[in-house]
Write a structure and sequence with these properties.
single chain, alpha+beta, Fumarylacetoacetate hydrolase, domain 2, Glucose Oxidase, domain 1, 3 domains, nine-stranded mixed β-sheet, seven-stranded mixed β-sheet, 24% helix, 24% strand, elongated
């Protein structure tokens, strides 16, 4: 074993050029979070976040969710680029303990980058000893974490979803792993929250290897740091139920009420207050700061245009550009006359199966996560495979979406509590009412992925527009071009309608031949006339 010593030198290989961390890699952690990734995913931590054993980690004043994560750290010894799984482990020189600290108060607003959440100074303690990778079996390593002397994490690499060799080989397809680079390989169940005064200890060892090599105890003490964040420079720390649950590890540990599979009846007082338009829950905990931040494609000016343009006209302009399958078919508004404009937040259901529903249907499942984290200006778009034989949203979740400032909900399935949902004032488009609960036909599976809804592909961030004619999906890059063309066509159609109203025959006028086109252009209508809004 080689002593790390004090930073800034990471002996014997120097300060790492990259610190790459794996999001979710242990079966125990996946079970705790209620989701199991198909492939590994990663984020980067800056080298300025490194700290040695015996140091401190600051929790800024006014924050509450400093989470610790005991992890096995791999130190690359020789450059790896396009290496196979069979050769990957040979590129690892050392193994040690790491604490992948994160401030969940900042996690939501970072939208997955983890820079402010996990990249703060001192948020990657490492060490204290290095284990020679050549002397151990990577499938027989153990990581343990103690909080104030109590063992809270204890797992082995036998519980990995993705073996270390796969992680190294996968990363090497995309970046060159250089000598000294550090890979943080994910944390098992038991990660939780630490407060000022708490002491965290993490140890990695190989208990079945000769000599039982160990990293020794990596010790870090939490202290309070400055927290006077300037709101003029960036978003402030905020906490919602999702961050509470994921920082603490479970709803129970976070002190949150247990969730149930079926939607409970909505309290009459809460429902009545919503229908009266009475003040409800503040939106300070939302992940996005404003409607314009929900999607850069929707400036206030562009949103105003979309609210004016009819879906039929938008659909026509999309077809002219080769986009024929952009209508979400079979859905109508819960209340006629509603206009829907926003950016997509997606939710996917899969067909019901008892074992899968038992695993994914309860607790803070994908459906509840979508409605509890929807940002202002977003539309929750649900893939229900056109199955209208159960509800995919009910009055409580619709109310939650309204309270958070969602622009609406679109589902190619059914809606429970249909009359109450219609009166909430939230634009909801669906296949119609159904009294059954979700589990009769569906398993809530995942959010924020590409889905199919009513025959249309929908990606997170796509622009969704709906009215009494239906709902269309607009690729963000085409929005301004399409809406301007649709409004121009509306002006033209309004002028044509005026001519018909005054006795003109439609032959040659609709669509316009060259003669009528000259008369239209001479009228100046194309410069913004047609304010009657009439169209054929």
């Amino acid at each position: 074993m080689t002593t790390l010593g004090s930073f800034p030198a990471l002996a014997p290989l120097g300060i790492p050029g990259k610190i790459i961390a794996v999001h979710l890699s242990y079966e125990s952690r996946a079970a705790q979070r209620g989701r199991r990734p198909k492939h590994p995913s990663y984020f980067i931590k800056p080298s300025s976040s490194l700290a040695a054993t015996g140091g401190t980690a600051e929790r800024p004043a006014g924050t509450q969710l400093l989470a610790f994560e005991g992890e096995i750290a791999l130190v690359i010894g020789t450059a790896a680029r396009w290496v196979s799984e069979a050769d990957a482990w040979a590129h690892v020189a050392w193994i040690t303990a790491a604490n992948d600290l994160g401030l969940y108060d900042l996690r939501g607003n970072d939208k997955g980058s983890n820079l402010r959440n996990k990249g703060r100074d001192g948020y990657t303690p490492l060490g204290p000893e290095l284990i020679d990778a050549r002397t151990v079996d990577p499938a027989a390593l153990r990581v343990r974490t103690w909080l104030n002397g109590r063992l809270v994490q204890d797992d082995t690499t036998a519980g990995l979803i993705f073996p270390f060799a796969q992680i190294i080989a996968d990363l090497s397809q995309h970046v060159t792993l250089e000598p000294g680079d550090v890979i943080l390989t994910g944390t098992p169940a038991g990660s939780s929250v630490a407060v000022p005064g708490d002491v965290m200890e993490i140890e990695v060892d190989a208990p079945t290897a000769p000599g039982s090599p160990t990293s020794g105890r990596l010790v870090t003490t939490v202290v309070e740091g400055r927290g006077d964040f300037d709101p003029a420079l960036g978003s402030l720390p905020s906490v919602d139920e999702l961050q509470l649950e994921e920082a603490w590890g479970s709803r129970e540990a976070a002190g949150l009420p247990a969730t149930v599979v079926e939607e409970p009846a909505e309290p009459a007082a809460l429902r009545d207050a919503a229908l009266r338009g009475a003040p409800q829950e503040p939106r300070a905990s939302r992940n996005d700061e404003s409607p314009s931040q929900a999607s850069p494609a929707l400036s206030p000016e562009l949103r105003a245009k979309l609210l004016t343009a009819p879906v039929a006209g938008i659909s026509q302009q999309l077809r002219k550009r080769g986009f024929d399958a952009v209508s979400i078919d079979g859905v109508l508004p819960a209340k006629p006359g509603m206009k829907l404009v926003g950016t997509a937040k997606t939710l996917r259901f899969i067909p019901a199966r008892p074992d899968l529903f038992a695993e994914h249907g309860g607790g803070f499942n994908a459906q509840k996560r979508a409605f509890d984290t929807v940002a202002e200006g977003e539309v929750i778009v649900i893939e229900a495979r056109g199955e209208r034989g159960s509800g995919t949203v009910g009055d409580v979740l619709a109310l939650r979406a309204k309270v958070r400032g969602a622009a609406g909900v679109v589902t190619d399935g059914g809606v429970r509590d249909f009359a109450t949902v219609a009166e909430l004032g939230l634009p909801v488009f669906s296949q119609g009412p159904h009294p059954a609960v979700l589990g009769r036909k569906h398993v809530p599976w995942e959010t924020d992925v590409t889905i199919a809804c009513g025959g249309a592909s929908v990606q997170p961030g796509d622009v969704i527009v709906g009215d009494d004619d239906g709902v269309v999906v607009i690729p963000p890059a085409l929005v301004e071009e399409v809406v301007d063309a649709a409004l121009a066509q509306e002006d033209e159609d309004a002028w044509v309608a005026d001519q018909v109203r005054n006795g003109a025959a439609v032959d040659g006028l609709f669509p316009m031949n060259a003669e009528w086109r000259v008369r239209y252009e001479a009228s100046g209508a194309e410069q913004g006339a047609g304010e009657t809004g009439q169209h054929l």
